[in-house]
């Protein structure tokens, strides 16, 4: 657990400390420097506090360098403070980096100026804020191994030059960091204010109600009112507002000591003496809850513990993001080659594959260009709907015959003798019914024409000129072939006005209907006789009508089946096969113009930038995975050694 880890770190020899602590913190620092934090939430310690809480003084005491101070907002950008402990005798080292700027700092006294210049460049000269990160790296024998993120102090009232909503802007920036479950929130609160009324602690509790990720830091203990010292002790003992990570108390340089140029080293000595000699706070000192050095030790242990606890989740997140990233990259492709001759070969290959797919689409072969289009499934649905239209029309036809049977003698009977069928009446009724199928057939054609090859043009995503050219060609060919197909369909229906079928087929179909009279005819013999009695129709006429119904249904079944097959054949031939052949021919002709062909590969800048971003992100995530794997391997190698060296010390 955490207490054991903290004791562990205190007892570790220097070389084992380097193996245990520094690699752990370096791992997260290196992941953050890769830029993966925009995709992954990395373990971090964020420092927040109200204006004037002493936040800058705490960070100065930890880092050993002066940071921007003053009234109002002095921290105007998030400041990532990377501290690396060096061996005794090694020189101080500093470096600042932000956006695309990176510069080494030779003198620790210049740190404040570098930070102010960076803030002015990022957020503008004045009092504005920005969410862009400034990274300050400090290496020295006098700093702990620790990385903190310092956030702007919480402002309640806008001052001259600040926007009215500056308070909301700052809170929004702080929320970006402290709401992440991977962030430990370090809340800085002065001892001489009501802790429950501080905005910083209120914000921390909103995102961490149970105090799982929050550590309280009490500052300015030398300014507490008389007789309130015991309350401060109770707060540090976690008896007033409970935080699972508890509280620490520190005394840093005040404004008077800064004015008097009291060094940080001297201030550290004064702090230690203050707590040791204080009648109330010496208890906190003895318990390890006081001084900046104890705070640094606790923060290091907290960060190491937090990182180790987060590694498994971090590894899973990296794998998940890599898979998502690769899936996105596959959509955007690899992009065109830079070399002119290679670009020409590239577009020839792409267009050839595209036209081959267009042909394959008409024969249901496997596509090579990556377009997933089950066109035949859609066609079957459309053609099944066409066949259903024919069947529904047949049902209506049968119903119409039945309704008109009773009026047959007055409406259709001519000079023929009973038992003879009027052929002209038969022919007119058949033609009228088949004619009603013509417009539904044309509508089916237009439905299919609208779904053919246009979607395939999306295979060239990122090449607007090429997509536009292909779509224009497809649209022109579609119009041409749709016109030819419609002409052929209407010709087919003109031919259907010639009532014809092979005699054996017709006789066979009619014979089947005669053998199943009740199933296939609208009226049975009994029904017809009943109708005859009520309408005055002779029985012989009723028999004639029954026979005519069989003839009408027999022929409609044959003609309907013919149309059910012929219309889809015409549509497939013109809209798919002929269109694909012509598209292939015109696309290959287009490639004869080399200059124009290369201009068609002019890539959409949005797509190009998106692919570049995805490639960079994938590279960063891959490096992060490698670093994480290497860290886990090294820790595994040292685990047994560290455990064995710890046992004698604990005894």
UniProtKB/TrEMBL annotation:
What processes in GO biological process is this protein linked to? defense response to virus; receptor internalization; synaptic vesicle budding from presynaptic endocytic zone membrane
* Coiled coil regions in record: 304-331
Domain named GED: residues: 545-636
Does the record bear Cytoplasm in its keywords?
A: yes
In terms of PROSITE patterns, this protein maps to: G_DYNAMIN_1, G_DYNAMIN_2, GED
One Pfam annotation reads Dynamin_M
A Gene Ontology molecular function term for this protein is:
GTPase activity
Q: Which UniProt keywords apply?
A: Coiled coil, Cytoplasm, GTP-binding, Nucleotide-binding
Q: Where's it found, cell-wise?
A: Cytoplasm
Output this protein's name.
Answer: Interferon-induced GTP-binding protein Mx
Family affiliation: Belongs to the TRAFAC class dynamin-like GTPase superfamily. Dynamin/Fzo/YdjA family.
Q: Which residues form the Dynamin-type G domain?
A: 39-312
Entry GO terms, CC = cytoplasm; microtubule; nucleus; plasma membrane; presynapse
């Amino acid at each position: 657990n955490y207490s054991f880890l903290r004791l562990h770190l205190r007892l570790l020899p220097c070389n084992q400390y380097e193996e245990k602590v520094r690699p752990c913190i370096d791992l997260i620092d290196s992941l953050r420097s890769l830029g993966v934090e925009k995709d992954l939430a990395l373990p971090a310690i964020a420092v927040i506090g109200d204006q004037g809480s002493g936040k800058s003084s705490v960070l100065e005491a930890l880092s050993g360098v002066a940071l921007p101070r003053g009234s109002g907002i002095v921290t105007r950008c998030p400041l990532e403070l990377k501290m690396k402990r060096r061996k005794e005798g090694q020189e101080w080292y500093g470096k600042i980096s932000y956006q695309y700027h990176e510069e080494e700092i030779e003198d620790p006294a210049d740190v404040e100026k570098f930070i102010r210049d960076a803030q002015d460049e990022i957020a503008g000269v004045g009092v504005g804020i920005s969410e862009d990160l400034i990274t300050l790296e400090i290496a020295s024998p006098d700093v702990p191994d620790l990385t903190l993120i310092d956030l702007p102090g919480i402002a309640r009232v806008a001052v001259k030059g600040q926007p009215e909503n500056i308070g909301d802007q700052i809170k929004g920036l702080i929320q970006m960091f402290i709401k992440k479950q991977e962030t430990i929130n370090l809340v800085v609160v002065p001892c001489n204010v009501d802790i429950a009324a501080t905005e910083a602690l209120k914000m921390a509790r909103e995102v961490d109600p149970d105090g799982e990720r929050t550590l309280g830091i009490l500052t300015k203990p030398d300014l507490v009112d008389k007789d309130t010292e015991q309350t401060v002790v109770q707060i540090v003992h976690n008896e007033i507002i409970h935080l699972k990570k508890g509280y620490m108390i520190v005394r840093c340089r005040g404004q008077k000591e800064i004015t008097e140029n009291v060094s940080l080293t001297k201030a550290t000595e004064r702090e230690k003496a203050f707590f040791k000699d204080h009648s109330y706070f010496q208890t906190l000192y003895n318990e390890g809850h006081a001084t900046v050095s104890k705070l640094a030790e606790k923060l290091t242990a907290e960060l190491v513990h937090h990182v180790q606890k987060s590694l498994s989740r971090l590894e899973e997140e990296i794998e998940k993001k890599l898979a998502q990233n690769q899936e996105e990259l596959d959509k955007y492709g690899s992009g065109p080659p830079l070399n002119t001759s290679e670009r020409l070969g590239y577009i020839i290959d792409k267009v050839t594959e595209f036209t081959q797919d267009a042909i394959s689409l008409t024969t249901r072969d496997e596509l090579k260009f990556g377009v997933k289009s089950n066109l035949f499934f859609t066609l079957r649905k459309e053609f099944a709907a066409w066949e259903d239209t024919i069947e529904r029309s047949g049902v209506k036809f049968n119903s119409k015959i039945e309704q008109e049977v009773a009026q047959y003698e007055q409406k259709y009977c001519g000079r023929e003798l009973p038992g003879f069928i009027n052929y002209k009446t038969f022919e007119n009724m058949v033609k009228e019914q088949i004619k009603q199928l013509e417009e539904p057939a044309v509508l089916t054609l237009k439905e299919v024409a609208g779904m053919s090859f246009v979607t395939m043009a999306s295979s060239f995503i990122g090449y607007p000129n090429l997509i536009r050219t292909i779509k224009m060609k497809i649209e022109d060919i579609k119009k041409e072939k749709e016109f030819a197909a419609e002409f052929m369909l209407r010709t087919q229906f003109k031919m259907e006005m010639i009532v014809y079928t092979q005699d054996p087929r017709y006789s066979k179909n009619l014979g089947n209907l005669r053998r199943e009279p009740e199933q296939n005819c609208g009226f049975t013999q009994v029904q017809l006789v009943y109708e005859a009695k009520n309408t005055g129709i002779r029985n012989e006429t009723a028999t004639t009508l029954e026979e005519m119904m069989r003839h009408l249904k027999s022929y409609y079944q044959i003609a309907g089946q013919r149309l059910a097959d012929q219309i889809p054949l015409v549509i497939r031939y013109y809209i798919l096969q002929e269109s694909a052949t012509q598209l292939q021919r015109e696309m290959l002709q287009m490639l004869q113009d080399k200059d124009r062909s290369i201009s068609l590969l002019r890539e959409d800048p949005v797509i190009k930038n998106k692919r570049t971003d995805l490639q960079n992100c994938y590279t960063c995530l891959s490096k992060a995975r490698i670093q994480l794997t290497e860290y886990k391997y090294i820790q595994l190698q040292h685990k047994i050694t560290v455990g064995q060296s710890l046992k004698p010390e604990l005894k």
